[in-house]
């Protein structure tokens, strides 16, 4: 993690944007979280998860988001930018731990406060310094004069300006833009306004550009600063135009850009710098510092709550916004009654109680998710309203009668599940978008002829709508979305909407037929997926401009009509059409690029493909009845051919007719016995032959020299590989589960190989020389039970990151010394290996070393060279002694010696200063623990279960002192000592300062008679397990709400149960050996 800190406006964001754009392509995933301070944690977590995983996950709580980040991203190599962090909780909940992302991930954090970086233990902290005078003058000149230096007659004036800007880039840019093409007199006046010495308030400097604006432009600027930063300009402009006039809005946006007060990015978002936003909000704040209801704009949670709860809003308020209110506001009928000039309301996910009987007729923008209104007030006549967005609210009807909203262009009522009907819409003739999606109680629509300019109508998931009204009154409609209208049985005449371009009827399960489509000749996309009752299609010649036709999962569709009437079709999806037995002539759709016939299980053959020469993607996966192929030479532009799970396919045709093929998937073609000559597909990059169980050999591979990925997983009959030198660009080779493979060919011909998976190759007895694949990053040998040794040539794999040799049960030899400078994970578990290598000085990146179940008796002292080692696992090994740790190891967090032959821990174990978890369970030879165990200040979990010869737990901490203070275990949360049968008492628990953080204590199956009375002071204890303590006679008073497990405590007297019954007493056995 790298922290970048410095004052606002100094260029922190500019720096991380430049870094992000230059290196983002080097990571598996990347995410730039901008303006962190102004967003909720859950919203940021959702954005992070979406950007990295590509999944639109809903995060319901901060803790849930933390859990998802930890579990879903721990192996992802990511680049994450956290821009403008203002609180330690943001870091804690977005980057919960240093290893929550995969190794070699990078996190860059910008902040104005260095404290947050120190608190989160950020590795490197970089302070962005102010510009020196030379660079400041150059930056200023670029904006003031459009050149690198000022003219000679302006030099002295320019030097005065940079003196007042104090080297702050933002101030230099704003002042330079403000002074562009101004006279020397205007320069002198500006410099005079800056006076106040070098420490002049930056807001006052930035405000110079604001002060020269006209009144309308000042108001427009404040609107953007308070409400519209980050919004799409196309969304904002109509709203602002309704407040001012068109000319003012257009000129105003342009002038604000020229003065560097705002900018519009390439994605059409309106942005302004944080300091400029703060300056604008400060101007509003100064209107009435003590009474928010007398300011023109209200946006903070505290002020919104105060104004609405106490009914202190006045006619000065023109806008009120807060997107992420966390508390409940109690509205009363008069909450908005005095805000007569209110133009903007924008609030999100707010819990309100009460009702509203007044809304301002000056409203231009009403954006209120979960609005408490059940109906708009009868006197609501906002004839300047541009956008009405009241999603997920309890509204039952909008208004009574007819309302005149002539400026309204967008109305979003999605997820208003109580809405049963719409009013007369004739008073909103300029409406362009109407979203009624998920209005599940809505049964019908009113006459639509009053909204002739409608372009988009969304009725998706309106499950109660059975029919549509006449559509001829909305002739300009371009998009009609009816997805999930499960009660809709038929469509009306479509000839009245001739401009329709998109028609989505997906999941209209009651729809049995379509009427004539000739009335919508401009249709480009038709989605009929999952229309399971649809048996046939009408004539398609009336929609000649159709580009996409989706008929996937139309299970009742048995045949297709003539396709020659849709010559511009580019994508045809017939996947899952289980009743479709044949595909008609395709020569009428020569522009087709994608054809999906996957899961068409009744399809036995394909038509001639020569009529679709532009085809690039052909998916025939899971066509289980398909036995043979037509000639492929008619589709020379094909790039992807998917034949997965075509189980009846025994052979492939000649492939030379598809020379541009890049991906060929034949996985699970279990009847395929051989491949044809591959030299005709020389551009192939990926060949997938997974689970082709009948495939006995591969053809010559030299004809596909560009191959990068070859997957032969589960090819059980494959006994040998051909020469690989003909595919020098190969990067991934998967041979896992090739049971019959006895040896590998020479690998020097594939020097670019990065991943080699040989797991489960049980007949493989040795590896070839590995020096010829120096770029290898991952080597998987899991379950190669015939393998006896890992060759010494592994030392040439300087780029190796992961080495897995788990469950190679006959492995006895490993190189005596390794120095793999890039390796991060080594796993050599459950084999006969008796000695692990000496570790070289360059192995500083190793984080995880797993030697479980080996015959290793001791570790080489060089183990301490692994300065980044986080996990060391020697469980169930023959390890008898643990090496002396002569240097402090900060990174080792998890040490597992469970089930090993360890007899004792050396006192030097206290140098494992970062250790959090120590597992010594099942160590039958362990008789005692050293006192230095109390020196492990970060230890949270200690496992000693079934250490049957452990007779003593150290109690004396007086001899352990650091600067005169006795040590304890200040972070220990869990102590598991089940089955330590030689322990006769628990006196070690009497050292209270060692156990004050303890939450879980397992002492089951032990022989002590009583417990110390001090347990009553273990205030954080939540679980105490005493199952099977047959000699235990009494239990002291316990802290409140402790779950107590006492199954099998045969000698326990009833009276002690009554004394301890302050939590839950559970007489059944605990569900887990460690955690009840």
TrEMBL record:
Write one Gene Ontology MF term: ADP binding
TM ranges are none
State the UniProt keywords alphabetically.
Hydrolase, Leucine-rich repeat, Plant defense, Repeat
Q: Which residues form the Disease resistance protein Roq1-like winged-helix domain?
A: 218-288
Superkingdom:
Eukaryota
Q: Which residues form the Disease resistance protein RPS4B/Roq1-like leucine-rich repeats domain?
A: 877-1049
* Protein name according to UniProt: Putative P-loop containing nucleoside triphosphate hydrolase, leucine-rich repeat domain, L
| Originating species | Rosa chinensis
């Amino acid at each position: 993690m790298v922290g970048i800190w410095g004052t606002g406006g100094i260029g922190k964001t500019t720096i991380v944007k430049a870094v992000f754009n230059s290196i983002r392509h080097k990571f598996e995933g990347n995410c730039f979280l901008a303006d962190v301070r102004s967003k909720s944690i859950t919203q940021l977590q959702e954005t992070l998860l979406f950007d990295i995983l590509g999944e639109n996950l809903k995060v319901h709580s901060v803790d849930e988001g933390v859990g998802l980040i930890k579990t879903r991203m721990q192996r992802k190599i990511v680049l994450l930018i956290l821009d403008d962090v203002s609180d330690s909780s943001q870091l804690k909940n977005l980057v919960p731990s240093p290893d929550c992302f995969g190794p070699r991930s990078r996190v860059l954090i910008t902040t104005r406060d260095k404290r947050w970086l120190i608190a989160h233990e950020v590795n490197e902290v970089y302070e962005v310094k102010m510009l020196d005078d030379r660079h400041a003058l150059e930056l200023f000149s670029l904006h003031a004069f459009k050149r690198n230096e000022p003219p000679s007659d302006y030099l002295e004036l320019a030097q005065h300006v940079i003196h007042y800007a104090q080297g702050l880039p933002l101030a230099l840019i704003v002042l330079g833009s403000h002074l562009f093409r101004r006279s020397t007199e205007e320069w002198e006046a500006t410099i005079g306004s800056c006076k106040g010495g070098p420490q002049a308030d930056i807001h006052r400097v930035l405000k110079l550009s604001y002060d020269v604006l006209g009144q309308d432009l000042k108001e427009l600027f404040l609107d953007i600063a308070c409400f519209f930063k980050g919004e799409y300009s196309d969304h904002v402009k109509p709203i602002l135009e309704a407040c001012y006039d068109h000319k003012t809005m257009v000129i105003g946006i342009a002038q604000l850009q020229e003065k560097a007060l705002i900018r519009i990015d390439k994605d059409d978002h309106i942005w302004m710098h944080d300091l400029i936003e703060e300056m604008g909000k400060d101007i509003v704040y100064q209107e009435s510092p003590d009474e928010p209801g007398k300011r023109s704009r209200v946006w903070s949670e505290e002020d919104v709550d105060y104004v609405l709860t106490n009914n202190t809003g006045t006619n000065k308020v023109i806008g009120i916004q807060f997107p992420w209110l966390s508390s409940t506001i109690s509205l009363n009928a008069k909450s908005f009654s005095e805000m007569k000039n209110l133009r903007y309301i924008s609030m999100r996910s707010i819990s309100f109680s009460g009702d509203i009987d007044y809304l301002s007729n000056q409203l231009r923008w009403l954006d209120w998710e979960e609005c408490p209104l059940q109906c708009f007030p009868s006197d609501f006549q906002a004839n300047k309203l541009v956008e009405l967005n009241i999603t997920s609210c309890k509204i039952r009807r909008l208004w009574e009668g007819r309302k005149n909203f002539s400026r309204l262009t967008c109305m979003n009522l999605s997820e208003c599940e109580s809405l049963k009907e719409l009013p007369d819409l004739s008073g909103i003739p300029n409406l362009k978008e109407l979203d009624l999606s998920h209005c599940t109680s809505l049964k019908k629509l009113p006459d639509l002829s009053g909204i002739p300019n409608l372009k988009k109508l969304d009725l998706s998931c309106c499950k109660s709508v059975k029919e549509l009204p006449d559509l001829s009154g909305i002739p300009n409609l371009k998009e009609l979305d009816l997805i999930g209208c499960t009660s809709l049985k038929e469509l009306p005449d479509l000839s009245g909407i001739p401009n329709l371009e998109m028609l989505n009827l997906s999941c209209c399960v009651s729809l049995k037929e379509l009427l004539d489509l000739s009335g919508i000749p401009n249709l480009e996309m038709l989605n009929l997926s999952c229309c399971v009752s649809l048996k046939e299609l009408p004539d398609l010649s009336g929609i000649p401009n159709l580009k996409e036709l989706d008929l996937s999962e139309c299970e009742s569709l048995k045949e297709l009509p003539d396709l020659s009437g849709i010559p511009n079709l580019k994508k045809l999806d017939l996947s899952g059409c289980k009743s479709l037995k044949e595909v008609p002539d395709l020569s009428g759709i020569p522009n087709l690029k994608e054809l999906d016939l996957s899961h068409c299980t009744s399809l036995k053959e394909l038509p001639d493909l020569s009529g679709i020469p532009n085809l690039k993607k052909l998916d025939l996966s899971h066509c289980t009845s398909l036995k043979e192929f037509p000639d492929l030479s008619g589709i020379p532009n094909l790039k992807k051919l998917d034949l997965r799970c075509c189980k009846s396919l025994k052979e492939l045709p000649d492939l030379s007719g598809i020379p541009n093929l890049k991906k060929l998937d034949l996985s699970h073609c279990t009847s395929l016995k051989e491949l044809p000559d591959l030299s005709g597909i020389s551009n192939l990059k990926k060949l997938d032959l997974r689970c082709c169980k009948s495939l006995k050999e591969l053809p010559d591979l030299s004809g596909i020299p560009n191959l990068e990925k070859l997957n032969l997983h589960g090819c059980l009959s494959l006994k040998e590989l051909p020469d690989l030198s003909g595919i020098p660009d190969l990067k991934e080779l998967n041979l896992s589960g090739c049971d019959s493979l006895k040896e590998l060919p020479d690998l020097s011909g594939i020097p670019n190989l990065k991943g080699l998976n040989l797991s489960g190759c049980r007949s493989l007895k040795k590896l070839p020389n590995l020096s010829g694949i120096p770029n290898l990053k991952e080597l998987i040998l899991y379950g190669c039970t015939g393998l006896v040794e890992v060759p010494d040539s592994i030392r040439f794999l300087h780029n190796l990151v992961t080495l897995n040799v788990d469950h190679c049960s006959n492995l006895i030899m490993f190189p005596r010394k390794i120095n793999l400078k890039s390796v991060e994970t080594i796993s050599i578990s459950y084999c006969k290996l008796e000695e692990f290598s000496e570790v070289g000085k360059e192995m500083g990146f190793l984080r995880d070393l797993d030697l479980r179940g080996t015959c290793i008796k001791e570790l080489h002292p060089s183990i301490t060279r692994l300065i980044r080692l986080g996990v060391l696992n020697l469980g169930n090994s023959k390890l008898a002694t643990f090496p002396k740790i002569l240097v402090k190891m900060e990174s080792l967090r998890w040490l597992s010696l469970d089930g090993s032959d360890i007899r004792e821990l050396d006192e030097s174990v206290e140098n494992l200063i970062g250790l959090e978890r120590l597992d010594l369970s099942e160590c039958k030879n362990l008789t005692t623990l050293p006192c230095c165990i109390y020196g492990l200040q970060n230890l949270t979990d200690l496992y000693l279960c079934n250490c049957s010869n452990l007779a003593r737990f150290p109690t004396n901490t007086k001899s352990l002192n650091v600067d005169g203070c006795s040590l304890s275990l200040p972070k220990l949360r869990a102590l598991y000592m089940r089955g330590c049968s030689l322990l006769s008492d628990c006196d070690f628990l009497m050292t209270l300062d060692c156990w004050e953080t303890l939450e879980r204590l397992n002492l089951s199956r032990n022989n002590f008679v009583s417990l110390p009375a001090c347990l009553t002071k273990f205030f954080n204890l939540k679980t105490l397990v005493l199952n099977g303590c047959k000699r235990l006679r009494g239990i002291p008073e316990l802290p409140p709400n402790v779950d107590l497990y006492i199954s099998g405590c045969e000698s326990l007297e009833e009276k002690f149960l009554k004394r301890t019954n302050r939590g839950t007493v559970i007489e059944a056995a605990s569900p887990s050996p460690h955690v009840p």
